[in-house]
Amino acid sequence: MFLLLFTATSLMAQSGEDAFKAAKKAIDAYNLNNDAAKLTEAVDMAEKAIDSDAVQADPKMMLKLGDIYAAAINTYVINRSTGLSDERFTDNAAIKGAKAYMASFDASEKKGDQKKALKGLSELQGNITNQGIYAIQDKDFADALEAFETSIMAHDFLTSNGGESTMTPDKLNDDRYYAGLSAVLLEKFDAAEPMFLALREAGYDDSGVYDGLFKVYSGKGDLDTAAKYLAEGRAKYPEESGLLFNEINLYIEQNKLSELIEKLEEGITAEPDNPSLYIVLGQTFEKLYTTETEAGNAEKAAEYFEKAQSTYARGLEQDKDNAKLIYATGLLIYNRGAAMSQELVELGNDFSKEGQRKYEALKTKVDAEFEKALPYFQKAEMSDPSDMSTLIALKEMYARNDEYEISNEFKARIEKVQAGETIEKSYFKEKGM
Q1: Measured over all CA atoms, what is the biggest interatomic distance in the chain, rounded to whole angstroms?
Q2: 175-227, pLDDT tens digit by residue?
Q3: DSSP E strands: which ranges in 244-397?
Q4: From its phi and psi, is residue 110 left (phi > 0), alpha (psi between -120 and 50) or beta?
Q5: Where would I find the H helices in 108-207?
Q6: The domain at 176-254 falls in which architecture?
Q7: Residues 6+ apart with CB under 8 A from 374
Q8: First to last CA, the chain
């Protein structure tokens, strides 16, 4: 058993060294005649050699593996930038090359070997960044984050070990920015935090730094710190709409309605053709309307109802066929009728003559509200026949009016949308409305 174990271990070590020899032979052939097949072979053998303890302990072998990965990423960058090919040879070649060069340096005792490792790492720096940029373009944010973190690490390694980094302070900060951005998109807030803090400290002139800090601390649940950096960013970049929308989202989260209204109006001024702003502002006024109604403040409630309705109307002036704004207007009116219906239920239990008189009077008002809401839902359906909220509203309204054939038609459409289908033709357009 001991003999078998010793033999197997020896074969594994030999296998790594043999793979390295094959990789070296292939890369030498590639350098001689530029045969892409030889580069592919060299990389394949390097992948087998890299995990060998014997190879990792040998600075000259690791240096050569760094050269192989450097050739792979360099060829990939040239081919991709010129449209010749998108063959990668291996994933994350630049990262693997950088780690090989750093391992070579760490394993070296000779100054000459160390200088070669630092030189290889320095020459690779630009392509580490290129790999990260391509990863962002491909929306592979995990690879992008690793590439930009490796770029920063390579710079620090070079400068702390007497090498020459090709990264200028501005270029280094660009890589920090992209690393932070990638980390935020992955919701890796602990990785993003030091990147954006370093950029802020360096005075990096981009509102995205404060957007990033806001998202980092919001993601970590620290709204006070998020608000602090957001306020700083808003003061520095008052015209930046992205920060404004972050501020709007923060006030929504904190339920600060008066501040929210002010910021939404500011947002509408900046982007008057953005329907979402009108919808959120209208819903804010509707929430205040509901609060005042429940408190018994009829006059104030009526004021907020009018503001909500006029806000949706302002949005429709910008886009008269916007289905969501049309639906929101109908829902506002419908909800007022629904609130009245609750009182109607209570009056229905009063069978006195006066109670019945009040019931009929209120029922007339409720029916009138639903009657006013219906055309908005119909028009919303004509603008977007697949909108689920509109379909549900129409199904319920026609059922309420005992028009079950139409109600069932919308029930069938709801089921189709739920199954992933798209309703191409509007029911009401087909009816000539």
Answers
A1: 107
A2: 999 999 999 999 999 999 999 999 999 999 999 999 999 999 999 999 999 99
A3: none
A4: beta
A5: 111-137, 141-160, 169-185, 189-201
A6: Alpha Horseshoe (1.25)
A7: 330, 397
A8: 88
